Amino acid sequence: MNAQTETSASAPLRKIVHVDMDAFYASVEQRDDPSLQGKPVVVAKRGLRSVVTAASYEARVFGVRSAMPAMRAERLCPQAIFVDPHFDRYRAISRQIREIFLRHTDLVEPLSLDEAYLDVTVTHTNMPSATEAARVIRAEILEVTGLTASAGIAPNKFLAKIASDWRKPNGQFVVTPKRVDAFLLPLPIGKVPGVGPKMKEKLAALDVHTVGDLRAFEQAELVKRYGRWGRRLYELARGIDERPVQPKRDAAQVSSEDTLREDLRLDELAEHIQRLAEKTWANHERKLPRVARTVVLKLKTTDFQILTRSFTPPSRPTSATELADIACALRDRVDADPNTRYRLVGVGLSGFVDSREEAVQPSLL
């Protein structure tokens, strides 16, 4: 039984597009400064604690990647041109891109400033197919912003997100229902979202190196080994993902999180917290005039235990730097063995109020 047969009885067939801007922040900098075009651009502040926010494709050739320490990026690519991030510009362009999405469908789920899921099962523009919808949307983005985007088209979010990386940059790839198994089974297991280096090691010990290898395991065995995550692995190995595209409303929390390339101790997380705080703050500013009062630190251990710590300061954070400082301090409230390692870190803001109300009401804290 293939993936499509398994899901057809429980969920309607959807047409999902995952749109991912190509090296978004770096591409914006190259667009706005023609002298940077064709050169290795690294979007990051210089400094001991700085991390790479984005890297152009010319810099990626040298192994430079987002989230790595800026000093390491400089060693890998001494000729790199470092540019400070300009989140106000990135947010403005992101709004233009979202307006393009909404011309075609109301079912738009932004994941960040530079990527989103779209459900194009039915479109306002009466596109004949999801493939054509993706092509037109990418062309409109290029015309309006001067930037390229890649897209993955598939029956669900899981497959569409993987497919969007297939023809980067400036391309698109389609996984039709009949081609799910042909696309999915040969994939390296590391392509599955959530399977980081440590999980890859655990699965390799079971001789699981591809999604096809994983499919040989029964659900009960995976659940016994990995709990709820085991059930999710079982479903993904069969191309099953019934999550709908959920348009963003007023969020109870804005956050950014990353699965780390290698598991780290608490005292090694500062630079990652700083980088995620910048991303979270950029998303928070899109919520104005609503502002957040509570800082949240999220951690996931190597055995998939999730820990969250939060703090509501007397005065709300007013910058990404303040947010990072508070989130870093929250590590002191994690009661765990200092040698515990973490595979995921996240920084969030919650407790939203309207800034105009905050200005006239006395604090209740």
Automatic annotation (TrEMBL):
How the cofactor is bound: the record states: Binds 2 magnesium ions per subunit.
| Top-level class of the enzyme under EC nomenclature | transferase
- The chain positions of domain UmuC read 16-196
Domain of life, per UniProt, equals Bacteria
- Catalytic residues identified in the record: 115
One GO MF annotation is: DNA-directed DNA polymerase activity
Q: Which reaction does it catalyse?
A: DNA(n) + a 2'-deoxyribonucleoside 5'-triphosphate = DNA(n+1) + diphosphate
- Respond yes or no to whether keyword Cell inner membrane is given for this record: no
Task: Show the PROSITE patterns listed in the entry.
Answer: UMUC (PS50173)
User: InterPro entries annotated for this entry?
Assistant: DNA/RNA_pol_sf (IPR043502), DNA_pol_Y-fam_lit_finger_sf (IPR036775), DNA_pol_Y-fam_little_finger (IPR017961), DNA_polymerase-Y (IPR050116), DNApol_IV (IPR022880), IMS_HHH_1 (IPR053848), Rev_trsase/Diguanyl_cyclase (IPR043128), UmuC (IPR001126)
Coiled-coil regions listed in the entry? none
Spell out the Gene3D superfamilies in the cross-references.
Answer: 3.30.70.270, 3.40.1170.60, 5' to 3' exonuclease, C-terminal subdomain, DNA polymerase, Y-family, little finger domain
Q: Which UniProt keywords apply?
A: Cytoplasm, DNA damage, DNA repair, DNA replication, DNA-binding, DNA-directed DNA polymerase, Magnesium, Metal-binding, Mutator protein, Nucleotidyltransferase, Transferase
What are the binding positions for Mg(2+) in this chain?
A: 20, 114
Q: Which cofactor does it need?
A: Mg(2+)
Subunit text: Monomer.
- Protein name, please? DNA polymerase IV
